[in-house]
Amino acid sequence: MNPRSPRAAEPAAPAALDLGLVVAAHGRHVVVETPDGTRVLCHPRGKKSELVVGDQVRWQPTGDGGVVEHVEPRRNLLFRQDEWRTKSFAANLDQLLMLVAGEPVFSESQLTRALVAAQEAGIPALIGLNKIDLPAAAAARERLAPYVAMGVEVIELALKADPAGSTARLLPYLAGRTTLVLGPSGMGKSTLINLLVPAAAAQVGEISKALAAGRHTTTTSTWYWLDAERRGALIDSPGFQEFGLRHIAPERLATLMPDFAAALGHCRFHNCSHRHEPGCGVRAAIERGDISASRQRIYEMLFEELSRSRY
To answer: Most CB atoms within 10 A, among 9, 58, 59, 108?
Structure first.
């Protein structure tokens, strides 16, 4: 009788493994922070990695770092997309902070995409209006008026001209929360991160070295603690991530835009797209001026995009 082949060791039950937090991710490698603050370079078990910054994971040490065995259930998840695919990039957020400014002029379409993504994921969103010391701030306030009217809070900042006052206004919103900070180039995101996390550059260098990602590390989202007690945190996603909305059915879009949602329930047709049908309550709101022309254009653009992505 042939001896039985040795069986591979069974992986430990997730609850028996160490708990960690993903603070950076690049390719198939992640940096996991332990409850005592130690950071360990890990890779996921298996060929496919779906780990993102903000994930709570169960992991165990190996000879060269660690292996992630299990991802704890996520409270929420945000997606980014490019021309070819949609990919998850941040999880378990308490809020999103979108930085805009009057100079350079911010994209209302990008802002709306971020707010729709946050609304769909159940994540509260704030807008930080930076560079209020510059003349272009007045025009930016006017463009943001529809968002204030629909209940989005706008925090006015002058991160370079008044760093102390700006951080004092912002910190109460950030304390004890995990905040994803987003903003296109030139809006002041790097200035904000460096003001609130003086050791940010050093942390990026450490993570870059750990991931051995070299110049590609600029594509890596990074977690920063705001306080020694590790209660509040910022996640910086370099560049501007184009939010992935392709998982949203076009029929749901109006429910995720508060000014449109307020006008729902008054359409003649139950499957109204709010673009051309007669007796549309949303179009009536547009004609009354309750929904701005720019918001209407953005809605129609996104509706077309989401309709194409279904096929």
So the answer is: 59
Q: Is there a contact between 100 and 130 (Cβ–Cβ < 8 Å)? A: yes
CA distance 65 to 169: 41
On whether the CB atoms of residues 66 and 25 are closer than 8 A, the answer is no
Cα(247)–Cα(251) distance, integer angstroms:
12
72-78 average pLDDT score:
95
Q: What architecture is the 250-308 domain classified under in CATH?
A: Orthogonal Bundle (1.10)
197 pLDDT above the threshold of 60: yes
Instruction: Please state, in angstroms and rounded to a whole number, the distance separating the CA atoms of residues 25 and 22.
Output: 7
pLDDT, greater one: 138 or 49: 138
pLDDT at site 8: 39
CA-to-CA dists, residue 252 to 99, 249, 273, 307, angstroms: 26, 5, 10, 11
Domain boundaries along the sequence of the chain: 14-71, 77-236, 250-308
Cα three-residue angle 171-173-175, rounded to 5 degrees: 65
Second-level CATH architecture of 14-71: Beta Barrel (2.40)
The candidate with the shortest Cα–Cα distance to 237, out of 176, 175, 193, is 193
Give the pairing type, strands 233-236 and 153-156. Answer: unpaired
Alpha helices in 5-127, H assignment, sequence order:
108-121
CATH 3.40.720.10 fits domain 77-236: no
Q: Quick check: helix, strand or coil at residue 265? A: coil
What is the CA 288 to chain-centroid distance, rounded? 33
Q: How far apart are CA 72 and CA 143, in angstroms?
A: 40
Q: Tell which residue, 127, 118, 157, 122, has the closest CA to residue 145.
A: 127
